[in-house]
Write a structure and sequence with these properties.
It is a single chain. With 214 residues, the protein is α+β, with helices and mostly antiparallel strands. It has eight helices and seven strands. Strands 2-3-1-4-7 form a five-stranded mixed beta sheet. Strand 2 and strand 3 form a beta hairpin. The chain starts with a strand and ends with a helix. The model has no long low-confidence stretch (mean pLDDT 92).
Length: 214
């Protein structure tokens, strides 16, 4: 399996300091790469406000994107189009151009999530598109994953920046005591914030996605 991912910055034209936001996003991506090095082609800036990455497995892509969402500061929101399909390269005089069905489907997916944001699901951030030739098992897997992502994005989108940081730490197995020390708050406060923000469901989902490779 090949999984192509396109990310773009939500509201990039409205940012006060576009260069600062770009630097924040790229630094966060590098941090997530170190925490979960599963990308075949790590996510990097391509053009305008877009980024691209390639993964071997859908679960790896979804786990990595979750950590990225949790790590980003409030002013740097991204949306993600995930395309299941082959990617290849087209020879060019300047450099090889990555192309193929995976990228076409990732583009379609990001257009779908953008449309969902504009309509009834403003916190939607992630969508998967597969090919019409997918077998029944893969088609069902994508359908179930998209349903999961709607709920995941809603929970993460409602979290404060601190709640996201704490959830990120718990996904990576850090103790509440260690997180409390970093945040300068009590362990009880960490526990209460995690519980009230829906973090346990997000952490359990992350564990399910990474169980195969653990």
């Amino acid at each position: 399996m090949t999984v192509a991912v396109i990310a773009d910055i939500v509201g990039s034209r409205l940012l006060d300091d576009r260069s600062r936001t770009q630097a924040q996003i790229e630094a966060t991506m590098a941090e997530v790469d170190r925490a979960l090095p599963v990308a075949v082609t790590p996510m990097r800036a391509t053009f305008a406000d877009e980024f691209q990455a390639v993964f071997d497995e859908l679960d790896d892509a979804l786990a990595w994107l979750l950590l990225l969402q949790l790590s980003l500061p409030d002013e740097a929101s991204l949306r993600f189009g995930v395309g299941v399909g082959d990617v290849g390269s087209v020879a060019s005089e300047s450099s090889d151009i990555s192309d193929g069905p995976g990228w076409w489907r990732a583009r379609e997916a990001i257009e779908q999530v953008h449309a969902m944001q504009d309509r009834a699901v403003p916190r939607a951030r992630t969508r998967i598109v597969g090919g019409e030739d997918e077998d029944v098992a893969m088609a069902d897997r994508i359908r179930f994953a998209n349903a999961y992502l709607l709920s995941r994005d809603e929970i993460v989108g409602a979290m404060s920046e601190r709640a996201r940081r704490l959830t990120y730490g718990r996904c990576l197995g850090r103790t509440q005591g260690a997180l409390a020390k970093e945040e300068g708050i009590t362990q009880s406060a960490v526990s209460q914030l995690l519980a009230s923000s829906g973090a346990p469901a997000i952490v359990a989902g992350y564990a399910a996605l990474t169980e195969r490779s653990s």
